[in-house]
Amino acid sequence: MSYLVEENAAKHRFEILVDDALAGFTAYLPRGEVLVFTHTEVDDRFQGQGVGAALIKGTLDQVRARGDRVVPRCPFMAAFIERHPDYADLVVDAA
C-alpha cells in the first residue's frame, strides 16, 4: 500500500490517498498560521490499517514544515499527539 497525504486547501482539509484512492481526511478551520482541526474521517474500507495514523502524521509533518501550529479539537488528532509527544510543540491553546 502506498500513502500520500496532500492538503486540499479549497476544502480546508488534508486528505490521504491509498494506492490513488481517497481513504480519509482531517478537516480544519484556518486561523492565520494556526489550523484548528475539527474532524478526522477514514473510509470504512481502510479502517484498522494504520491509515488514520498515517494521515495525522503526514498532516502534522506538513504543518511543521511550513511553520504553522495546530489546535487539535478533533479527538483522534488529540489522542495521536498525546501518544506521540514529539508533535506537542505544534499545539497552541484555542483563542
From TrEMBL:
It holds the Pfam family Acetyltransf_CG. GO terms for molecular function: acyltransferase activity. CDD domains: NAT_SF. Keywords: Acyltransferase, Transferase. Its EC number is 2.3.1.-. It comes from the Bacteria. Residues 6-92 form the N-acetyltransferase domain. InterPro entries: Acyl_CoA_acyltransferase (IPR016181), Gcn5-rel_NAT (IPR045057), GNAT_YJDJ (IPR031165). PANTHER family: BSR4717 PROTEIN, PROTEIN NATD1. This is GNAT family N-acetyltransferase. It comes from Micromonospora maritima. The lineage of its organism: Bacteria, Bacillati, Actinomycetota, Actinomycetes, Micromonosporales.
